[in-house]
Structure formats: C-alpha cells, structure tokens
Predict the 3D structure of the following.
Amino acid sequence: MSAARPVLVVAERLDAAADMVVDQLNQRGVDVIRFDSADFPQHVTLAAGHKQTAAGWAGVLSDEHRSVRLEDVRAVYYRRPGRPVMAGTMTEPYTTWARNQADAAMLNLLSALPVRWINNPHHDRIAAHKPQQLVAATRAGLRVPRSIITNDPDAARAFAKAVDGPLICKPVLGGRLNTGADRQLMVATHRVDPADFDDSIRLTAHYFQEDIPKKYEVRLVVVDGNLFAGTIVGTTEKARTDWRTDYENLEYDTTAVPDRVASAVRRFMASYGIAFGSFDFAVTPDDEWVFFENNPAGTWSWVENRTGLPIAAAHADYLQGSAT
C-alpha cells in the first residue's frame, strides 16, 4: 500500500481523542483528511459515482482546504461527528427533510467503503444498544448484573425482592436533558430504595440493576484486540455510585486483564464486528469482573492522559495497516 493513501477522520472539531490519533498518524507520515459531518453540505462537497466493481463508490470529498478521492482512502476513523447543519435560508419542513437526506447520504456512502473502520457506523449503532449488550456479554462468558427494564411498579418490586439487596437505576439510552438557558443535565446512575417505588414508574421505562460491590472500576479500552485497562477508584459515595458525577474525587491506575475476561471481551467484540470499544467493568472485593456496558464510541483520551497507556498509538497502528 502506498504511504500516500490517506486515513479519513470523521469527527467533531473539538475532540481530544481524534486529535491524539491524528497526531500519531502525522508522526508516522500518514496522510490524514479530517472533517466533521456537520460541515456537509454547506462547507463540504461530495461527488461520488457507483462503479460496478468491488471498490463500489468512487469520487471526491472536499472542503475549502483539502480533498480526497474516496477510492484512495485506506481507513476511516469515525468518531461522534455532528449532524449536517443546513443553510439558514431553508424553512421547515424542508430543513429537516434535507438534513436527513444529507445525513443518510454521507453516512451510508462512507459506510460502503471497503476499508478498515473504527467503527463502521452501522455496526456502531447496533453495538450501542444496552439491553442487547447484556445478552452478547453473557454469551461471550462475562458476568453481568441482574437487571430489569420495566414500567410496571409491581414488577419492579418483585425484582427488588428477588435481589434482596441494594439497587441502582440507570438510563437505557445515554444522553443529556436540555433544561433551558443553554444548560444540560446528565441523567446519572443512582441508587434507589424499593420502598419509594410508586405509580410514577409507569411514566416511562426504568432500567434497574443490582448494585455491584466495587473494589474498583475499570475503563477497558479495546483496539483491534489490544486491551488497555485503566482503573478508577472513587473516594466519595457519589463517585463510587457513578464516577462521571465527581471527577475531582477519583484515583487512577492500570491493571492486568484476567485471561478469561480478555477472551470473553474479544468474543464480544467479534460478535458485533467492531474494532474499538470502551467498556465499563466493576471489580468486586473477590476480584470478579462484572460487565456493565460497552460504548463503541466511548471516551478514552483521559485514560491515556492519566495512565500513559498507548491507546492512540494502537488506533494509529490499526488505521495505518493494509485495507481489508
């Protein structure tokens, strides 16, 4: 493969992980073309035609600074790009329709490129579904918490009785609440008391799990089968319940991944056909690893910055390799 063949990076402009990967590729002399889907179609131009060959689509993707031929791309790093921003001259319902057209065209055309991906967005979206992850994790050989998703108060009470121990509640779908005045609120994992269960449970789906006792937690970053395990110890009750809510009271280190867990994680990844995952585990006082979830577009720059684990280099190794 020619060293001139570029890696296409599709990410928001302000993304620390993407910055670190681009820096690694630049150090290796690998050409990089980076853009955000939010710039299409106002600032990015696409012209691609389907070729009746194994290569599929060919054409040019360009902005005011650079361009790339799609058939020359060696790999794609697709990481949380924005949705297309439409011209202010458009009005509804045409604005929404046009945004959906632009979004689908860019995502589906790029996904058809026969190259290495971190991660192909179609695989990524399927891999992000939390309830299905528990099934995949169990099949792969990982322990998962006892869980229920319900809007039935009686079912929630029965689950609490069966667990007969502390419970937590967490969102089924990640995201933030827009509370107005440009403020957003994260819905964090929190402990619940079954004595408080009432008819308000009927208002939406609730995701309850047994509360796993933690010696520490692990953010396990997986890149092409390579495992990088950063440990997280919360020094306050708030941090121990959901470390994302109390960053100032966390301690970081690294740990080895037990062989049984490592093999199961690789089986989990293979079941989704993805090269990257950002896993959350709890390690119990008995040193048992318990799977919580995997974010196929999860953050990891802070893991490398806090621990020195070479995660960006692993990304670059994979993206630099021969096209599949």
Remarks:
- The longest strand covers residues 226-234.
- Residues 146-210 form a domain with the Dna Ligase; domain 1 fold (CATH 3.30.1490).
- The radius of gyration is 22 Å.
- The chain has a mean pLDDT of 91.
